[in-house]
Write a structure and sequence with these properties.
Length: about 300
């Protein structure tokens, strides 16, 4: 009990002294901070410069927490992007399966297309090896020629629409004149109106229609096919669709993809049978089963009797 009383007598005055000093310091700091004087202002500035940098250690936890929050936000964004990429990957896999199914279906349809046009209309597929490279001639070279039985004038397609015709055959290569060439002229039919016209190349991807009988019956979007007139091309080969050009002329938006001509299908176009005498096409010469006709030269008397 004596020791506790002695310690209390010892620490009591020290505690009261420290509290008094702290109160006086706070009062002095308050007075100094409230005094409006240039000298006191300089003193406050010096005190702030001396004390504030030493508080970096106190700001370290706050700075670390802010960086941690920023890193967590970045991680959350990366996680969301990763989930989006996973979903897109799943969609790509589904699209891949759909593309494979469509490719198989397309191959079947192409095989069917080989026999649906004409039993005699077979084809040879060639690879485009080069183009003309000239602004005045629109043509390409394919790696099939006379050794494959290619003949001049045969039509070529890219699997969708008409591309042009063979205009020069070598042993191993052939030149294909495109429909866009200025020397190209083919007869076409516009459906459903049935109007006949000439598709004339003009070195553009949308060649114009010429010699059209009635333009009022033709609308943009109408289907354009080969007419088969003149024996240039077989009939009903897809050429493209009618479009209205910026110059007001009716043009054709070609169905063939001229930007990616990689493979061309050369159709073996068989020539049509020529008819030298169309008058005898429908029926043979009629026979007369009645009385014999009177020949005025051979029997002039009978003619006179008949006239009387």
């Amino acid at each position: 009990m004596a020791r506790d009383k002695t310690s209390e007598d010892y620490f009591g005055p020290i505690r009261r002294l420290l509290v008094g000093v702290l109160v006086l310091a706070l009062i002095g700091l308050f007075l100094v901070w409230r005094i409006d004087s240039p000298r006191v202002e300089r003193f406050r500035a010096m005190a702030i410069q001396a004390v504030v940098p030493s508080f970096d250690w106190a700001m370290a936890p706050i700075t670390g927490a802010a960086n941690l929050i920023s890193d967590f936000e970045s991680y959350r964004q990366l996680r969301a992007q990763n989930q989006d990429l996973r979903r897109e990957l799943q969609q790509m896999k589904a699209w891949k399966e759909a593309a494979l199914q469509l490719e198989q279906e397309n191959a079947k349809l192409l095989d069917l297309n080989n026999v649906s046009l004409d039993p005699q209309l077979t084809y040879v597929t060639g690879v485009v090896i080069t183009d003309s490279g000239s602004p005045f001639r629109q043509s390409v070279l394919v790696n099939v020629g006379s050794r494959d039985g290619i003949l001049d004038g045969w039509p070529t397609m890219d699997g969708i629409g008409l591309v042009g015709r063979i205009a020069g055959v070598g042993n191993e290569t052939s030149r294909v004149m495109l429909l866009t060439d200025t020397s190209s002229r083919i007869p076409v039919t516009i459906q459903p109106s049935g109007q006949k016209a000439i598709l004339a190349g003009d070195n553009s991807l949308n060649p114009p229609l010429e010699f059209l009988d009635d333009t009022a019956l033709v609308r943009p979007g109408d289907r354009v096919v080969s007419s088969g007139d003149g024996g240039v091309f077989p009939a009903d080969l897809l050429v493209g669709q009618v479009a209205l050009g910026t110059d007001g002329r009716l043009r054709v938006r070609l169905a063939a993809d001229y930007q990616r001509l990689e493979f061309l299908r050369v159709l073996r176009s068989q020539p049509h049978e020529e008819i030298p005498d169309p008058d005898n096409l429908l029926a043979p010469e009629a026979e007369f089963f009645g009385p014999a006709a009177v020949n005025p030269v051979a029997n002039p008397v009978a003619l006179e009797v008949g006239d009387g």
